[in-house]
Structures are given as C-alpha cells and as structure tokens.
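During the second year of the project, the team shifted from modelling isolated chains to modelling whole assemblies. The rationale, set out in the original proposal, was that interfaces cannot be judged from single-chain predictions alone. As a representative example for this report, we include one of the complexes processed in the last quarter. Its constituent sequences, exactly as entered into the pipeline, are reproduced here:
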Amino acid sequence: MLEAPATGTDVGSARRRAGLRAAGGVGPLGLGVATLWLSVIVLLPLAAISVKAFDDGLSGFVDAIDAPSARAALTVTVAVSAIVALVNVVMGTLIAWVLVRDDFPGKRIVNALIDLPFALPTIVASIVLLSLYGPSSPFDIQLNATRPALVIALLFVTLPFVVRAVQPVLLELDREIEEAAASLGASNLQIFRRIVLPTLAPAILSGAGLAFTRAIGEYGSVVLIGGGIPRETEVASQYIQKQIEVDRFVNAAAVSVALLLIAFAVLFVLRIVGHRTARREEQAR
Amino acid sequence: MTPHAPTVDDRDGDLPDPTDAAPAIVAESHEIAVTGLNKHYGDYHALRDVDLTIPGGSLTALLGPSGSGKSTLLRAVAGLEVPDAGTVLIGGQDVTFVPPQRREIGFVFQHYAAFKHLTVRGNVGFGPRIRKRPKAEIDRRVDELLEIVGLAGYQERYPSQLSGGQRQRMALARALAVEPRVLLLDEPFGALDAKVRDDLRQWMRRLQAETGVTTVLVTHDQEEALDVADHVAVLAEGRIEQWGTPREVYDRPANDFVKSFLGPTAVLRGELVRPHDLVLSHEAADGAVPVTVRRVVHLGFEVRVELDDAEAAGDGDLSAQLTRGEAARLDLEPGGRVYVRAT
Amino acid sequence: MRISRPATLTLRTVALVYLGVLVALPIGLILLRTFEDGFGAFWEQVTTPAAISALSLSLVIVAIVVPLNVVFGVATALALVRGRFRGRGVVQAIVDLPFAVSPIVVGASLILLWGAEGWFGFVEDTGFKVIFALPGMVLATIFVTLPFVVREVEPVLHEIGEEQEQAAATLGASRWQTFWRVTLPAIRWGLTYGVVLTVARALGEFGAVIMVSAGVAGESQTLTLLVHSRYIDDHNEFGAYAASTTLMFLAIVTLLLMTVLDRKRHSA
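Output from the structure prediction step:
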C-alpha cells in the first residue's frame, strides 16, 4: 500500500526524464546556463545602474536629469540624432535607389564602401573625419568642436542603417506595378510618391530608428571631433563619462537611464510598426 | 547546391535485385508490442489507448489520414516521443523509458534527414562509427550496404549531389547499418515522385522479405499500404480502427471510415458500397434499384457509369465501375434506365 | 519607372558626392598621411613598445572573449531554438539589449556593479581587481559582442531543424556525440560568421573599454585606446594615423571575410 505511490512518482519522473532526452534539445541545464550568462553579463550591470539612478529617490532622478548641463547634453544629443536620422532618411534612400536602379562602373566598390563605417572602430572614424574637417584639414574646413561636426561624425557611423534596410525592399519591388501606374498616366513623381514610397516606408522608418538609437548612445566617433564643450557640443555619453570621472555616480546613472528609456521607446515604436506592416502583408497574400 | 554538382540522375533505374545481397543483413525477427499507449500535446489527444502487436518479421503499415496519430505511434516505438501512459515492448523487452540511442532501431525519415556535411560513406557509416567499430569493418559494411541499395560507387558523393530517391536509399542503408532489431519508416516515399515511389516500394518489399527484419511503415496512401504490407493498422483520431491483412481490411472493413479510407465508395440507398461491387442490368431483379444513366466515362480498361437515383435523398455520389466488355454488352446511353444492385 | 538620363545622372552624382565627402575622401586622406613619409615611418609607429603592447592586449581580450561567446552563445541559441519554455520572448529581448545600449552606459554600469562602491565591490576587497583592469575590459567587450554569435547561429539552427539530430539519436549517438558530429558541423558557417563579427567588434570597441581601463600606456591600452591617447595626450597625430590605418586594415579584412563567409553560408 505504501509503495504504490512511490512507484507512481518513479514512473512519472522516468517519463519526464525520457521525455527531455527524446526531445533531443536543451534540458533545464542548458536553459539555466543561458539565463545565468545573460544575467551576469547584461542584466546585472543594467540593474545596478538603474538602481543607482534612483538612489536619491524619484526626485533625485529628476533633479539629476534636470541639471542644466545634463539637460543641455540630452537636448543636444536628441536634436543632433534627430537631424542625423532625417538626413539618413533622404540620403540613405537616395543611395539605395542609385545602388539598385542605376548602373555605373565601380558600383560594387561603392556598395562595399557602405559597410565600412560598421566595420571601422569608432575612434578611427573620429580620426578619419578629423583629418578632413579638423585643425589640419587640407581644405581649410574648420568644423572641429562644432555641432555640424557632431552631425557629420554621426552621419558617418549611421550610414549603413537606412541604405541596408531599403536596398532589399527596393530589389524585390515589383516593377510591373510601376509600369502599370505609368500606363495609367502617372508621372514619375506621382509613381514615386504613391507607389514606391509607401512600400519603402517601413524599411526607411526602421533604418532611421536604428540610426537614431545608435546616434544617441554614440561616443567614440564624436569624442575627438565634437570637442565635448559643455552645453555646446557635449553629448549625453560624454556627460556620463565625465560624471563617472568625478564620482557623481547618481548623475551618470540618471542620464544613462534616460538614454536607455529613449532607446527602448524608439525600438518599441519600431516593433509595433513592424508588426503592423507584417500583418498587412500577410493579409495582402 | 554547389555549381559543379553533377547532373542528378533521378531515374532510379539502377536498383539491384535485393535477393542477390540480402543474406548479408538477415536479421532476427523481433515482435513489437504496444499496450495502453496515450499521448497528449497540450489539449490535443494524439494517441488514445492504443494496443497493437506487430508480429516479428512482418511488414506492417500504419495507415491513416494526417493527424490520425500514425507518426506519433511510430515515433513512440522509436523512442523519439515518450508516451504519457502505456508501454512499448520490442522483442519482449520493455523499452518505454529506453532512449532511442539504446533501442537498436533503424528509423527512416520522410525528408531523409541526411547529414548534409557528410558524404554517403559518412552517412551510412555514422552508426557503426558511433559504436566504435574498426574502420576496415565499417568500410566493408558501408560498401556492402550501398551495393544492396544500388548506390555502389556513390561513396564519396554528398547528399546534395543525389536525387530524392537516392537520398532515401542512402537513408535506408544508414538505418540498416546498425543492424537494427526493427526498421521504422515514417512516410519514406512521401516526398518522391510517383514512378520512383513505385519502384522503390516494390524493391523495399522484396528486401524486407529477404532480410526478415520487422518493419513498420507509416503512410497515408492506402494503395501503398495494401500493396506492400502483410498487415495494415488503420488509424483515425488517435485510435486503431482496424487491424488485419490487406484483404481483411479491404474486403471486410470494420466500419464506414475504414471502408471509405481504403478505397472508392458509392452510396446506394444509404449503404456504402464499392463501385466495382455494383452490378448493372436491364432486367429488374431482387433488391435491384431502378436508376437513370447520367454519364458514361471511358477510362481505358475501366468504364465509370455515373447514375442518378430518383428515390435517393442526394446522400452521396452513385457511380458503378465496369469493365469495357461489360459496358459494351449493356450498351449504356446517357438518359437510359438500368437496374443496379450490390453484390 | 523610367527616369530620364539627366535625372539619373543627378541622383548618381548626389549619392557619390555624399559618399565621397563623408567616407572616401577622409579615409583616402588618412591613408595618404600615413604613408606620405614612406612605409618605414608607418612601421616605426606601429612597432613601438606601446603599440606592440596595445596590439597584444587587444588580442588577449579577443582570445578570452571569443571562446566565451562561442560556448555561451551557442548554448543560448540552442536554448532559444530547441528549448520549450515560457518567456522565450524575454530572453530574445535580453540578447538584443546590448545593441540598444550606449558603450559609455555599458562602462558606467560595469563600474557601478563591479567597482569599489558597486554591488560586487567585495570582489575587489579580495584583491581581484575587475574595474580598471583586464577583467573589466573583458566584461565590457563581452557585453557589446554578446548578440553576434547568438544572432548568427539561431536562424541556422531553425533552418536545419531537429530531424538530423533525431536521426543521429536513432543511430545510437549520445546527445554529446550528436552535438559534435551533427549540430556543430551544420552550424559551422553561421558560427564562424558570428565569430568574425565578434572579433571585429572586440578589436574596435572603444567607449565601453576606455571607461573600465586604467589607461596606462604600454600596459592597459588596447589598440583603440592607443589611437585616442596618441592623439589627445601625446599630440602624436601621425602615430594616431598609423594606428588607425592598422585598425582600418583589420576592418577591411573583416569585410572581406564576411563577404566570403556570406557566400559559403548561403551555398551550404
């Protein structure tokens, strides 16, 4: 009588064990290892900085962000990043168009050039841009430590996002639809605005969003050419770095959390837009 | 596919006679016994109290529509699925909780599951290599098996350089290389085109007869099941509806589901009958029903006669299957009246 | 859409001028400046003791980060693809998180976790220095490179499915044997691609690493930190160009490898 339930659980656990083995995949061990790894490397540091941001309560967090130089750094960062995203929308789409629809000698080299900013270390990007736009510019262009310099540096590192997002969509675009529109009497501009642009829009938006999130966190490419003049060209990442240097951890943490929140908000919007277009495409099928 | 891949020969006309080489893989015959098998996937009840004994040395087909649980049953025998309840015995040994690695089975997947990074030799020799057999022995065994499945000379090819039929034969050789106690085939010919499927089926039937290894074949194709199997288990909704020889299940179906799944049917006054069991005549006889000929379709040797029964409540198609001779003798015309009865 | 010749030429010119001014011209200028005094001058700059030390530190970090990312990245990808558990979406999001975090925030976070005043400050009390030492630089590099291996291996695992692994099991292979003989060979090109991306990013990371490095020349400087300090501290513009050219060369090698691997991946 007493043994029966014990045997029952034995069989039950044997079934579970056998089930895991048969599934061929990852047991609790694999999942545990993955979770532990992600926690130690990613989650714990971010938790530490988030908690630190609220060390002095919510008002402390607000005060830290509202401090004039912090607010200036965040404003400059967001404003410059928004400009960069907008320029990328126009130029990125244009470059993608030229790379897909145009044909000229050396196109493959130009195409390869697009990826270079991704592969190039950011500090090298800084040096590279300084050589042309800095104090020793051969063309006497002096942009060092100005806001336009920030824009140029960020345009350099974010170049691939929109181009690489739009290119595949443009390649798959059914040209018969454009021809149909033309046969119905639409001008090129009308075709572009009414046919091509709506199809490209999700890709453009996604590329611009990624470029924006990359830009607001950027450090290496702006550190030399930006100059980091407080309330002038100092971006949020430089502000955080300076606050850490002078041991004002709460200030650094608060601005960090603000940056994280902006990035998450943008990515969240992108995800919603992405889901919506994916659903629309499914319905169209 | 690599650009330099040779042209794939999909004729599959190079199947050797398995009787020539079969003694090399004569197996002992192990019975498979399944009792009280149940399996759920969430809310879905894939197997319901399945009891089945598959005689050693036989070739048994598990036949059913998709979702009937036939593949789940096969995978439970293989150990790729663990049942929620019930036991699986192979050769009298309880293997319910034995992992697939130690069940000594051979399993052939519908989509071949070829190891793409290994050559044909690497694929077929995989099992023996896992078992740490000496290299010379592995090579000999691989060559022998490839001879049997008609892939001699293909040792150094990669799966991407083989046709579908050749890949499936390689998969069969791979499964046989470990001298399995039972051979389990999950829709093995499902992904092949009709001609290749037919040849391979006949060839496998002979190979099985020669080697005597207990073989279970999952299929949704009733013709395939009736053609090759000694025994057929018909499944629907996780249950075994009938078990028997192909003749038994075809001639004496246990219920309407089995009858309609195993072959074409017609409805005569609410009764499910086989079209070839319908007899047409110009004279009224006992139990014969007067009908009108709607259409006569000549399909080579067969003639299909579509009939209209004015009395029937439109509960199904009524068409009879005759030979060309019979049809000519009756001289049927659309609109003509005949009497029909089931034999 | 048929575009007139002048319009096509205008678009092409605008694109090429933009790319020229933004990318080609500055890079060409750096190369010119680096080699205008001959290869000898360049070689001298990249073989100074500080430069050699920076290169070896960068390589040490890569040598530690890559194996860790391979082991844990493949394990995570396997758990995500083959595992059946709740909260998979959350794990996916965490894997992507490093892409959305500023390198400086990474560095600051590590200081607040592992630094003397951080949650794990007690580790430092035992004499094992994390921040302003090699372990901190390794942690920062792992953080920023964490997504690469997972993201490259995951789709390949999806594509190959489970049948090959199940076939190996029916043939008697243990789970470990199945991994080494079936799964790993099947994901090898995706994994290699992930490793190339990891190496490139590890060599090039600057912001996260500078935050947690002691920054002592010839000791705790990576190649990117060397570029920075030569320009800022030493006012050695030429030296900074030379070191940049070295990194640029590595970046181009990466790009070439990526192109080759991409082709391999798609033909395999």
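DSSP finds twelve helices and no strands in chain C. Chain C has a mean pLDDT of 89.
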